[in-house]
Structures are given as structure tokens and as C-alpha cells.
Amino acid sequence: MNEASPPDWLVQEAILAPVAAQLLTPGTELRVREDWIQVIRDHAPHPSMNEVVFSRLFEAEADEVIDDTIARYASIPTSFKWSVPQGSGPDDLGDRLRARGLHGWMARAMSCRTDSATEGPDATDVSDDPDAYAVTSAAGWDIAGGALDEYGEGLRWAAQTGRFGLFLADDGAGAAAVVRSGRVGLLMGAVVLPEHRGRGHYASLLRTRLRWLADRGVDHAVTLAREATSAPILQAQGFDTLFRYEVFQWDPPAG
Predict the structure, then answer these.
(1) CATH code reported for the domain at 112-242
(2) pTM of the model
(3) What's the rounded Cα separation, in Å, for the pair 208 and 81?
């Protein structure tokens, strides 16, 4: 695939895939329009569970919408993420978010064919035991308290849909998930606990999820990776970059 010009359909699948990844527990507010995708969980104050996934705003309304959105999450209160993938607007959306104190990092939407999985040991499929998955995943992503209860409930819901695959590496050394979304599968949540890194667990979790998708007739996998951490690893594993983008986070004032 030419990194400079990926197929339009694959780019669109990568932008929309986070919708399929939402753990739809009671009380989750998922707002989906052509120009706006947002998740609000009043009862789960954690940035991984509250996010503006996509926003294409008219310039004249942008400041008001941004301020109203920040105020909504501040009322919980919770940190939240605001992703600015390809197609977002206005063009200076990132600058407007920075001006309001949101801090950001670079990320990449990446993809590969599922038949590119390398040879090697598999991770363990625990799709029928979401509570076991939650223990390792929550430890890796620092999810605790009420957010952990919500996370566990969401995973139990996900396990019943048949669209999600949940995997553990070496009895809890790491965890990762995958969800079928449209024409692709979204790889997400990969984490290896610090004391187990450097032993091939990340690669094991990756190849197992690619095989899981291939076995279900899904030809392409996409993932959203941090530029500074996961993206170079995935590039070395054969993933192509669809587009680079910025992710921002807002945190409630201290005290």
C-alpha cells in the first residue's frame, strides 16, 4: 500500500471504528452524527471512557461548541480526550483546543492485512471470561474505582455481542482486544505490564488478533497508535500509516 494515498474507504473505516469499540453500558451517552461523534459517561470519570471521537465544526460555532463540551465534562467532573483525525474542522481546531489548556500528543491511524500475521506462539482467547481480561487490562491502563466497575460491566456486554475478541498474554502478562467494525477489525487496548516487557508478549497479542479476524473473513485491521510508543512497533510489524493526527486531553483543575 502507498502510505501517501491509502484507499478512501479504509481511511473512513479507521475514523469510524472507535464507534464500534464503545462499551455500551446503561447510562452511556453516545452521540453520533455525520459531523460529530462523542461519548459521555457521567458515572465513569476516566479519559478512556469519555471522548470526542470526531468533530467537524463550522468556524462560527466552533468556540461555543468547544466551551460547551468542556463544561459538560467538567460537570462530571472527568478528564476527557478530544481526537482530531483527518476530516476534522475547522482547520485550526487543534489550536483552539490548546488555547483552552488541553494538552496533546501525536497519533497515527494504521492498517495491515490480516493475512500478514507472523508465526509464533498465540495469546490466550478469554472472550468468554471478560472479568479475567479486565484485571490485566485495568492494571495496565490504570483504571480503578467506579471507572473499573463500568469497564467490567462494559466488557461483559461486549462478550455477549460476538463482535469482540479479548486476549491475555502468558496468564496475565498483557492484554489486548479487537472488535469487528464494518469492513475492518479495530485492534485496541494492547498493554503489557512493565515487569513483563521485552519478552515478545506484544507480538503474540498482535498476531493472535490478526488471525482471529482472518478466521472471520475480515481482510484488514486498523488501529490508532501513539506516535511515540506503539506506532514504531507496529510499523516494524508491517503496518502502513493511513494518516497522522493529534489527540488532546482536558483535565479538571486540581483541587
Answers:
(1) 3.40.630.30
(2) 0.90
(3) 29
